[in-house]
Q: What sequence folds into this?
């Protein structure tokens, strides 16, 4: 496809290559550009290039004016800013290292690993170019990639200075503190969710099925809690494992039962040959801009350029490095065909398991190496090589960024290393390993020249039974490099019940399943704070799985929080009861003294209450007698003057209104009648009447006398 660049490389003019029945759909010239991370395409409507260029340039200018007007209107709604002039100096993008593996069409695996330098020159590691035309074509392809990278336009906020008041500065500081606090708690909650998830690793190869589950002790050392494996019947399997789902699922069930695994959440891996792995460099973007660019399908189209439809792949990505100085960032891109991902998932689903993580085999080895490597291991760079009849690749980890070189072996060469006997004269395996070592040497040389870092040791993972016989051949071809069979259990604690299962001459094949067992389902983005390589998940439904486990964690977290709050309340009540008990105990020691004081006070209180009642009674009686009343005094005087000589008073009671009760005694009834008659004759007495009369008795002897007792009711007038 011929492409013409206008407007400083920001307007691409070309003829679309879409074909229908072998012919181009349209021969018209088409214009393409990027505005705010979005791809814009328009047809000129003409096949004449001279006519198409002004039409497409006008379209581009109109887009720019429209975009500037939108930016201006959005700025006017906010506080005005002074824009800094853009720099005219552009720094070249850093090296982009690609490791691409595709599913082979035949029994042979064919993978290309490409390394793009800053000068946009392409060098194929395996196989080399056959002629100058191929080299020129590769150089052109590389240049076009970086042209497209430069043409991605990302809208950025203004960094101009503006006057801020002290209040605004204080608000900004508070907002920044709140963001830091939120990030801190998010990191802690994410770490808790990762630590609490229980996952079993399941490694499926054509040789065996392995399962493992691991945990950490108090010293942060790994413990192999559960482990088991079953060798597969080679007559029942072939190179294409997904054709034998029923057999593999039954073997997985038996392996899990033997290991006594109860968890159903599974982490599994796909072969490297079924994945595309690249570390690509793009212009620096925020997380929101990156998501927007991915949603519009403009990012991967320019950075990755897959040969097939991107919708046929399950894609994982994560930013692993940001370079603000060069205004670029490195993105880890991992993809695999949905058909392969679903096929491997269906194998474990047939075993009634729930796949929650789908990793790539090379990264499971790296995960195991990172968790189990000795303290003396080089943290800046390390190398892992998988060598065998299935997977063959060489991986250098530089500052946690993988650089993968696929090693190509034909089927006869694989068979020769399986049946290799180095002691036999003319054994073909010597030539195979010599060519193998040459590819490794070339990859090491390119890495050391670029990063100025030495690779002195290569950790080998292999399922070959004769690997120890073949190791001297590698050392012979690479004299300055040490090849070491990686033992993943050398730094792990293996319980007694698993020692017999792991007592193997070559324990490197266990590395992959341990790398899966170390994986944790990250639902809150904890590994964004750590490294992207530990977070790879190619499952198409990974967002739904994360959301489901997030809800599960939050509900459990809330339940634990409620239980903790209740326990805290009970603890506070218990502490208060404890202090009250001891305080009351000290007071009970003086109980007798307190009781004695109480009795004395109570006696005084009772005596005072009795006096109070007597005084209240006297007061009530006193209220009934009206003092200084003339009418009452005159009435009493008339009553006194009415008493005959032979009558005696014993009691005189006035009710306070109009009645006076008179009690006394007389010598005869006539004396009583005379008294009543005298009373009725008085002017203030309305009526006097006899109420009662009896015979009085002597108190000392108890004998009766001739005196008559009486009770007279005297009612007064006008009182």
A:
């Amino acid at each position: 496809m011929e492409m013409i660049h206008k407007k400083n490389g920001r307007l691409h003019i070309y003829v679309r290559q879409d074909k229908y029945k072998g012919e181009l759909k349209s021969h018209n010239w088409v214009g393409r550009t990027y505005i705010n991370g979005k791809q814009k395409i328009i047809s000129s409507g003409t096949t004449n290039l001279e006519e198409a260029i002004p039409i497409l340039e006008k379209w581009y200018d109109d887009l720019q004016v429209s975009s500037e007007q939108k930016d201006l209107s959005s700025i006017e709604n906010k506080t005005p800013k002074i824009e800094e002039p853009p720099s005219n100096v552009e720094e070249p993008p850093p090296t982009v290292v690609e490791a691409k593996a595709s599913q082979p069409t035949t029994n042979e695996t064919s993978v290309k690993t490409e390394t793009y330098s800053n000068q946009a020159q392409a060098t194929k590691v395996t196989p080399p170019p056959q002629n100058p035309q191929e080299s020129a074509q590769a150089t052109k392809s590389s240049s076009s990639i970086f042209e497209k990278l430069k043409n991605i336009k990302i809208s950025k906020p203004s960094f101009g200075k503006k006057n801020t008041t002290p209040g605004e500065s204080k608000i900004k500081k508070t907002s920044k503190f709140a963001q830091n606090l939120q990030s801190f708690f998010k990191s802690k909650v994410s770490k808790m969710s990762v630590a609490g998830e229980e996952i079993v690793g399941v490694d499926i190869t054509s040789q065996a099925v392995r399962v493992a589950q691991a945990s950490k002790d108090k010293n942060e050392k790994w413990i192999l809690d559960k482990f088991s494996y079953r060798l597969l019947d080679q007559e029942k399997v072939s190179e294409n494992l997904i054709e034998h789902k029923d057999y593999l699922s039954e073997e997985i069930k038996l392996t899990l039962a033997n290991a006594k695994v109860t968890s159903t959440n599974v982490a599994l891996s796909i072969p490297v040959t079924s994945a595309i792995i690249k570390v690509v460099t793009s212009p620096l973007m925020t997380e929101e801009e990156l998501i927007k660019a991915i949603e519009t399908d403009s990012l991967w189209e320019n950075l990755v350029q897959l040969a097939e439809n991107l919708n046929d792949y399950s894609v994982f990505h994560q930013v692993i490095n940001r370079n603000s100085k060069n205004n670029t960032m490195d993105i880890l891109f991992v993809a695999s065909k949905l058909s392969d991902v679903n096929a491997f998932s269906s194998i474990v689903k047939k075993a009634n398991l729930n796949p929650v993580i789908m990793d790539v085999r090379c990264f499971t080895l790296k995960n195991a190496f990172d968790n189990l490597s000795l303290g003396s291991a080089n943290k800046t760079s390390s190398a892992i090589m998988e060598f065998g009849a299935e997977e063959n690749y060489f991986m250098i980890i530089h500052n946690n960024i993988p650089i993968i070189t696929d090693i190509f072996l034909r089927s006869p060469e694989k068979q020769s290393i399986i049946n290799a006997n180095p002691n036999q004269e003319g054994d073909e395996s010597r030539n195979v390993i010599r060519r193998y070592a040459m590819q490794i040497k070339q990859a090491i040389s390119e890495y050391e020249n670029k990063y100025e870092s030495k690779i002195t040791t290569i950790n080998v993972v292999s399922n070959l039974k004769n690997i120890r016989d073949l190791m001297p051949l590698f050392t012979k071809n690479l004299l300055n490099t040490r090849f070491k069979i990686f033992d993943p259990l050398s730094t792990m604690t293996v319980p007694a019940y698993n020692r017999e299962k792991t007592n193997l001459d070559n324990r490197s094949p266990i590395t992959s399943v341990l790398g899966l067992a170390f994986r944790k389902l990250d639902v809150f983005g904890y590994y964004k704070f750590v490294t992207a390589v530990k977070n790879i998940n190619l499952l198409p439904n990974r967002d739904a799985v994360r959301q489901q486990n997030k809800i599960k964690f939050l509900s459990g977290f809330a339940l634990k929080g409620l239980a903790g709050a209740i326990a805290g309340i009970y603890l506070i009540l218990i502490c208060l009861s404890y202090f009250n008990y001891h305080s009351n105990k000290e007071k009970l020691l003086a109980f007798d003294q307190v009781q004695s004081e109480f009795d004395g006070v109570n006696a005084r209180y009772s005596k005072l209450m009795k006096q109070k009642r007597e005084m209240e009674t006297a007061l009530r009686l006193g209220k009934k007698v009206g003092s200084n009343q003339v009418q009452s005094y005159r009435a009493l005087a008339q009553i006194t003057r009415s008493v005959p000589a032979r009558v005696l008073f014993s009691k005189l009671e006035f009710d306070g209104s109009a009645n006076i009760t008179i009690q006394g005694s007389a010598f005869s009834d006539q004396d009583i009648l005379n008294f009543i008659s005298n009373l009725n004759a008085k002017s203030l007495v309305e009526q006097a009447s006899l109420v009662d009369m009896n015979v009085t008795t002597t108190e000392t002897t108890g004998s009766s006398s001739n005196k008559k007792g009486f009770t007279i009711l005297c009612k007064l007038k006008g009182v």
About this structure: The CA atoms of residues 28 and 46 lie 5 Å apart. The chain has a mean pLDDT of 76. The radius of gyration is 53 Å. The chain is about 40% helix and 25% strand.
